[in-house]
Amino acid sequence: MMPAARESLLDAAYTALTRRPWPAVRMVDVAAAAGVSRQTLYNEFGSKEGCARALVRREADGYLAGVERALTAPTDPRERLIAVAEWTVAAARDNALVKAMLTGCWSERLPSPTLSAVPSSSAVPAQRRADGPLPSPGDFVAIVRDRAVSLLPVSGSPRADTAELARACELVIRLALSCVAAPPGRGGVAELVRGALPRQLG
Questions:
Q1: Alpha-carbon span 194 to 190, nearest angstrom
Q2: Is residue 64 one of the residues assigned to a domain?
C-alpha cells in the first residue's frame, strides 16, 4: 500500500479520536473517511489494535521530530533546551496521545496499546515497526536527553562536561513533564527551566 494511503488512514483515525472515545471509533468509518475499503485498512494494520499502535507510533515520531527541530535551532544551548521544554508542554497540551505517552496516564477515551512488542505478521515495514515496543515515559526522557547530549556542544569536551550536560538535559525534560502534569503559572516552563539550568551551559 502507498505510504500516502497509510497516512490518510492514520489522519482519519486521529480525527475520529478527537471526536469520540477510541472504543466508539469504528474501523469502517475510518476507512470511509480515508477513502479506502475496510479490507485495505485491515491489510495495512491487521486489526484495530494494530491501527492504534501505528497511530501512537506516528504521534511519538511527530513529538520527537519537534524535539529535533528545537535542538538544531540556530541559538545557544540554553535556548535550545528551553525550546525543547516549551515544545514538550505545547505538544502534550495539543495532542492527547502525546500527553498520554509522556505521562503514562491513558484515559478510557484513548487507545491503550501495550508498550511491549506484539507478534507481527505484517508484511508492511512501517507496521512491523509499530508492532515493536512503544516508548514508555522513562524511555522518552532517555531518548530526548541522549539526543540533546549528541546535538549540543560541550564547552571543554572532557567526560565530566558531557555528564554535566546529560544531567542538565534530563533535568529540563523532567521539568517539562512536571509542567505537563501541573501547568506552571506566569512565566511558564521557560522561566522554570531558565532558573534551573546551570549558568555555564552554553
A1: 6
A2: yes
Residue whose C-alpha is closest to residue 66's, from 44, 93, 88: 88
Amino acid at 12: A
Kindly state the helix (H) or strand (E) to which residue 62 belongs, with its residue range: helix 48-71
> Which CATH number do you get for residue 89?
1.10.357.10
Residues 54, 45: contact at Cβ < 8 Å?
yes
Domain of residue 152 covers: 3-196
Residue-wise pLDDT for 125-183, tens only, equals 999 999 999 999 999 999 999 999 999 987 655 565 888 889 999 999 999 999 999 98
201 assigned to some structural domain: no
pLDDT of residue 155: 63
In a domain, 74, yes or no: yes
46: left (phi over 0), alpha (psi -120 to 50) or beta: left
The Cα 170–Cα 37 span in angstroms is 45
- Does 86 fall in a domain? yes
Domain count along the chain: 1
Burial 25-37 (b: 16+ CB within 10 A, else e): bebeebbeebebe
Q: Shortest CA distance to 144 belongs to which of 81, 95, 91?
A: 81
Read off the pTM: 0.91
What distances in angstroms separate CA 183 from CA 138, 158, 165, 192, one per listed residue?
A: 20, 36, 25, 11
Say how far apart CA 57 and CA 159 lie, in whole Å.
34
